[in-house]
Amino acid sequence: MKKYSTLVLLALFLLNCTERKKNITNEKKQNLPNIVWLVAEDQSPERFAMYGDSTISLPNLESLAQDGITFTNAVAPVPVCAPARSSIITGMYPTTLGTHNMRTYAPWKQEGNEPTIRIPSYSPIVPQGTRMFTEYLRKQGYYTANGPKEDYNFEKTDAAWDESSNERHWRKRREGQPFFTVFNFSVCHESGIWKKGDSTLFVSPESVSVPRYFPDTDIVRHDIAVNYSNLKRMDDQVGEIIQDLKEDGLYENSIIFFYGDHGGPFPRHKRALYDTGLKVPLVVKFPKNKNAGSFDNRLISFIDFAPTVLSLAGIEPPKVMQGVAQFGEFEVTEKPQYTFHSSDRFDELYDRLRAVRSARYKYIKSFNTELPHAIPVSYREQMPLMQELNKLYAEGKLNEAQSLWLKAPKPEEELYDLQNDPYELNNLVDHPEFKDTLVHLRAVLEDWMKETNDLGRYPETDLISKWLPDGEQLQLRALEVEERNDSIRLIAKKADATIVWKKDQDSIWSIYTSPLPKTLSFEAKAERIGYRDSEILEYNP
Q1: Catalytic site includes residue 81
Q2: Three-point CA angle 312, 281, 163, nearest 5°
Q3: Minimal CA–CA distance to 137: which of 99, 177, 84, 191?
Q4: pLDDT range class, residue 10, cuts 50, 70, 90
Q5: Which of 172, 357, 515, 532 has its CB surrounded by the most CB atoms within 10 Å?
Q6: Pairing of β 163-164 and β 143-147
Q7: Helix 218-247 / helix 59-67 crossing angle, nearest 10 deg
Q8: Do residues 380 and 351 lie in contact, with contact meaning Cβ atoms separated by under 8 Å?
Q9: CA distance 316 to 447
């Protein structure tokens, strides 16, 4: 009898533990934070009031900064959009993913991606276990929406978003469902400098400041004024989203990120490994405006965004991610001491560089010294400011600081003191007093390239031959079906493939996580970054 009572007590104890665990899990899911990303294209921090610039008022972003934390050392791993976005969405370095070239996946180009150099549109076969991080959010119960820009340098997976379009909005979610929504603002993109060149200016060209590395001319001042005006247009659009949050009673308890997708739109900004191309504005507003109005100088890279969002949602970041959680349940205690950066192909031109950045110093290594930093990317050549630089350089009318970026050959190594030389104009490589710093950062960079399997050491055509044998993207094998008493189990032959499914009437693919009822009619397929989807399985009972 005593033994029987002990067994009963043990069973009750185990039952209580199970119920308690379920309750904790359910409570955790009910308290999941809503997360919004507001993404400005092509902008550096020094043009914003929260970073000390009073040239133009951006009231919506200034208000957000007053409610949030402004980060002073946020950086992109690559100073151009598609490779940078591949790191944001995966938590990994583009040089590890194979997305380091600008750009790889471009199905909209009818004539081919870069036909003059035999580069087709392709999705690199990424390392095992790599996924778009929003897939984990959806499994946790989140409604995920993005738009209008994707441009991840690979073909997106259907598991990533509930919706990705111009019409995305959290208001389309189920009642009470937590959401992660991304709003991209392209009005401040590089192309806006020439496309909006004749539009209304909201600042006078005479009122703008001209950095030391640009000549002070009417054309330069005009293009800088155009960018400020585009920031005003972007701020208006940001205001609409914030107003929607407030109207829905969601602003106070939502986590809001505002950031730029890399540095500014100008020459020597975008596509450059100087801070003008790498540093980005980043403001994060936490629930109840925690630490409102403060500044944070930690080093934070785009590879940290995915693990940080997962951590904020109570999800442990997968081991494959190279970034770390900077906040949330799985925040790391030891923050990064360095950030790493790369430059490879820009459209039709190659120029491989690598860089490591600490809080104080930056080291840049060039693998193509015969080229200037200012490689003639045809897209950028449309900008009046770029044309002005080329003209004045050819005429010998630029001073030393203004000429450095355009000179060839460029140095094999560059070392800068970011504290005393924020524009990176004084190369310290040949200064004996900085030899130890140079040797140390050189070694740190070399170790990083080895440890992360930097694919930039291979010709892109060799990588394409490996990933696209016979010129075709590999296809995943068809799903296998295992029928049980009352359910259907789906099996993907590739271990890290994701299975998605939908009912006949559905437009959105759901992520397969458990067997489906035998009575259900559905379609299903396997997908993975770098592969074509498997053939669609149609099941009808």
Answers
A1: yes
A2: 55
A3: 177
A4: low
A5: 357
A6: parallel
A7: 60
A8: no
A9: 27
Give the integer Cα–Cα distance in Å for 297 and 198: 38
- Summarised one tens digit per residue, pLDDT across range 326-374 is 999 999 999 999 999 999 999 999 999 999 999 999 999 999 999 999 9
Whether 62 and 205 have beta carbons less than 8 Å apart is answered as no
**Closest CA relative to residue 341, chosen from 118, 27, 74:** 74
Which of 206, 76, 90, 223 is closest to 153 using CA atoms? Answer: 90
CA angle 98, 102, 107 (to 5 degrees): 90
**Beta-bridge partner residues of 295:** 70
Q: What is the DSSP string of 415-483?
A: EEETTT-TT--S--TT-GGGHHHHHHHHHHHHHHHHHTT-GGGS-HHHHHHHHSGGGS--BPPPPEEEE
Six token digits for residue 195: 């496309």
Instruction: Quickly tell me which residue has 């693998």 as its tokens.
Output: 367
Q: What percentage of the chain exceeds 90 in pLDDT?
A: 93
Distance, in Å, from the CA atom of 194 to the CA atom of 459, rounded to the nearest integer, reads 34
- Please tell me which residue, 84 or 504, carries the higher pLDDT value: 84
**Residue in 39, 40, 81, 283 annotated catalytic:** 81
The one-letter amino acid at 25: T
Residue 22's pLDDT band (cuts 50, 70, 90): very low
Measured distance CA(512)–CA(517) in Å, rounded: 12
Helix (H/G/I), strand (E/B), else coil: 523: strand
From 285, 327, 287, select the one nearest 63 (Cα to Cα).
285
- Which amino acid is located at 485 in the chain? N
Distance CA 340, CA 363 (A): 10
d(CA 393, CA 387): 10
- 457: Cβ contacts below 8 Å, ≥ 6 apart: 449
- 373 token code pair: 């930093």
